[in-house]
Design goal:
Strand order of the largest sheet: 4-3-2-5-6-7-8
Largest sheet: 7 strands, parallel
Structural class: alpha/beta
Helix content: 40-55%
Radius of gyration: 24 Å
Number of helices: 19
Shape: globular
């Protein structure tokens, strides 16, 4: 007879032998139900939106845990939420503001507390994630309230990395993560950068797959962690080809230049390029699209009345609007390391529109134009070099305008429809044991292994 230690009953003895009692050939099935987790909302996380739509196209049951913000993005976010609700997506929305106050206040306190502690002693698990962003706690609270069976949990943005792993433990399922930016290189807070690197180094290896939005980001992440994985794949952030239209009839009197972003604000490179463009207003038009920050307008933009402005618009409207321009500006001032090695959404958008791209000479941009040389140039755009870059564009005016259709056609094969095939291949490789669907576990927030 097996000895029974004090405090152990028959259930504990059965548990010891349970692995031996499982069938030798367990049943497997394709991915059927997917849970997405993000620290952003839909309107500011287009990659999440594309993956949700992809899962729906495959006939999967989809649920999403994400945030909602009362700012310029709210009406655009509502459009996407309504689309997903109509298609059966179950949404678990967390308010991104200070209401309700108590959870928000606790999350802020814990973020500050663990950031201080993390400077002195090593922290792990949910504490490490909470130090990276206050939204970790809010995500974990929401996930802990969800009941259901999932085959795959997919996280977006660093604050969702630990909650994604924790959710996979709760639901006994697979997990994956999307690296849209090189998160340890974002911002200028060295302590947060260090904590973010530790978080990713700990939990990315626990994912069944990781997707990267640009080659150099994957390379740097592999350098940080020390090894590669067969299921770490590059999935470029191109958009659906259905969202783009061929060039509109454009006046050839002037070169029409466009720049867009979520926010028209300081430290986006505009302070360097706009004073230079002012000297060429007889030959060039400049339009900015985005949420114009009043402080930036009052202290800088108002001095340059030649600059045209368009308010934010939804993604599909923006992509069609851009067909009215010749040149897209991808002027990255190198504000952080991520800015240097990432392929920005604006770069890829200009590319798919067929615009000629004037880009700053970051390693990521150089890498991009080595792959697609006819679509633009990467040049130094500091104050002393910007005038030379503009002169180069004016010298190329005829070829830029006449080559628009060729660039649009050449870019048509680079699209989300093609990139999505890489994700689908990985998703289909993650065949799951069907018995996990009845073995939901309580979430153990403190666990790391």
């Amino acid at each position: 007879m097996l000895p029974v230690a004090k405090g152990y009953g028959i259930k504990s003895i059965i548990a010891v032998f349970r692995p031996c009692c499982r069938p030798f050939n367990p049943k497997f099935a394709d991915i059927n139900s997917v849970l997405f987790i993000s620290t952003l909302n839909f309107a500011t996380n287009p990659r999440l939106v594309k993956e949700v739509r992809l899962a729906l196209q495959q006939g999967h049951h989809v649920e999403v845990v994400c945030f909602e913000f009362d700012n310029w993005s709210f009406p655009f976010n509502q459009q996407i939420k309504n689309e997903f609700k109509e298609n059966g997506v179950i949404l678990h929305i967390i308010p991104g503001g200070r209401k309700p106050f108590l959870p928000w206040a606790v999350s802020v306190f814990l973020e500050l507390f663990f950031r201080v502690i993390g400077r002195v002693i090593p922290i792990k698990g949910w504490m490490l994630s909470q130090a990276v962003t206050r939204r970790t706690m809010l995500l974990l609270r929401k996930v802990n309230c969800i009941n259901g069976n999932f085959d795959l949990v997919i996280g977006h943005n660093p604050g969702a990395l630990y909650p994604t792993w924790a959710a996979s433990q709760k639901f006994s399922c697979k997990c994956g993560f999307d690296v849209e930016d090189y998160h340890p290189g974002e911002g200028d807070n060295m302590n947060v950068q260090k904590l973010t690197r530790e978080l990713m180094n700990t939990f990315l290896p626990k994912m069944e797959y990781v997707s990267f939005a640009a080659p150099l980001m994957k390379t740097k992440t592999i350098d940080d962690i020390g090894f590669d994985n067969i299921n770490w794949i590059e999935v470029y952030n191109f958009f659906s080809k259905e969202e783009f239209v061929a060039a509109a009839n454009i006046s050839k009197d002037k070169l029409r230049i466009v720049w867009f972003s979520q926010n028209v604000n300081f430290k986006r490179g505009l302070e360097q390029i706009i004073p230079v463009l002012e000297k060429y207003t007889e030959s060039i038009e400049l339009t900015l699209i985005g949420n114009r920050k009043e402080e930036f307008f009052n202290s800088f933009l108002s001095k340059y009345p030649f600059v045209k402005y368009m308010p934010p618009m939804d993604q599909q409207s923006l992509h069609k609007q851009l067909s009215a321009f010749d040149i897209g500006l991808a002027i990255e001032p190198g504000k952080d390391y991520n800015n240097i090695i990432a392929w920005s959404n604006k770069l890829l958008t200009y590319f798919q529109c067929g615009l000629f791209v004037l880009a700053s000479d970051t390693p990521a941009h150089k890498d991009f134009f080595e792959k697609f040389p006819q679509h633009g140039v990467a040049l130094p755009l500091q104050n002393e070099n910007a005038a030379g870059a503009i002169e180069k564009l004016l010298d190329m005016k005829e070829s830029i305008q006449s080559g628009r259709e060729d660039r649009y056609s050449a870019a048509s094969s680079q699209c989300w429809e093609e990139e999505a095939k890489k994700l689908l291949e990985v998703w289909k490789s993650l065949r799951v044991r069907t018995e996990h669907r009845i073995n939901q576990k309580p979430m153990k927030i403190g666990r790391v292994d």
